[in-house]
């Protein structure tokens, strides 16, 4: 890295809404994060639905998202459907501000309560949600099917905005 590169910090991450144009990239990120990923067509369908909202994480000068949060809004409640960060961007503290931005955007759209489900063994995600203020509201036994065919329980969580 040049001296100038060491002196000038990289641009701050950006958070911007994403739509169907990003479906293929979101599917690729999702596939890197989950054992039963959704495809491009799944994302195109969801992103085309009324009430579905997605925010992307953009690093540096990239025009392709490095992560995203996708939610469905019904009246004054929302469900976070999925959150994923690309492998090269994981572990660098990007998920927390991405989630905060998304929650703020939901609040600005009149959402008062946000729900989500998370696999009970996904400690990093559970820690992220707890730091954001989500509390456990329940548990769904055997809700997720893992890559090896076994099942894992889901924790349900909620946050009042």
**What is the architecture at the second tier of CATH?**
3-Layer(aba) Sandwich
Q: Provide the number of structural domains.
A: 1
Distance between the termini: 43 Å
**Count of individual beta strands:** 7
Keywords: Acyltransferase, Transferase
Pfam families: Acetyltransf_1
Domain N-acetyltransferase: 13-161
InterPro entries: Acyl_CoA_acyltransferase, GNAT_dom, YpeA/RimI_acetyltransf
Explained architecture:
The protein has five helices and seven strands, in the order αβααβββαβαββ. With 161 residues, it is of the alpha+beta class. Strands 1-2-3-4-5-7-6 form a seven-stranded mixed β-sheet, with helices on both faces. Helix 2 crosses helix 3. The radius of gyration is 16 Å and the shape is globular. The model has no long low-confidence stretch (mean pLDDT 92). Pfam families: Acetyltransf_1. This is GNAT family N-acetyltransferase.
What is the topological layout?
Layout: H1 3-7, E1 14-17, H2 23-33, H3 40-48, E2 52-58, E3 67-74, E4 77-85, H4 95-108, E5 113-119, H5 123-131, E6 135-145, E7 151-160
Parallel strand pairs: 4-5
Antiparallel strand pairs: 1-2, 2-3, 3-4, 5-7, 6-7
Helix pairs in contact: 2-3
């Amino acid at each position: 890295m040049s001296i100038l590169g060491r002196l000038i910090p990289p641009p701050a991450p950006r958070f911007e809404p994403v739509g169907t144009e990003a479906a293929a990239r979101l599917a690729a990120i999702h596939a890197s994060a989950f054992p039963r990923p959704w495809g491009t067509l799944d994302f195109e369908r969801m992103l085309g639905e009324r009430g579905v909202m997605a925010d992307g994480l953009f690093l540096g000068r990239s025009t392709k998202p490095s992560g995203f949060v996708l939610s469905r809004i019904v009246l004054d409640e929302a469900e976070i459907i999925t959150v994923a960060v690309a492998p090269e961007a994981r572990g660098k503290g990007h998920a927390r501000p991405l989630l905060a931005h998304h929650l703020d955007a939901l609040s600005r759209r009149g959402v008062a309560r946000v729900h989500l489900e998370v696999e009970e063994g996904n400690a990093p995600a559970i820690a992220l949600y707890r730091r954001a203020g989500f509390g456990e509201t329940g548990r769904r036994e055997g809700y997720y099917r893992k890559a090896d065919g076994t099942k894992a329980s889901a924790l349900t969580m909620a946050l009042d905005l």
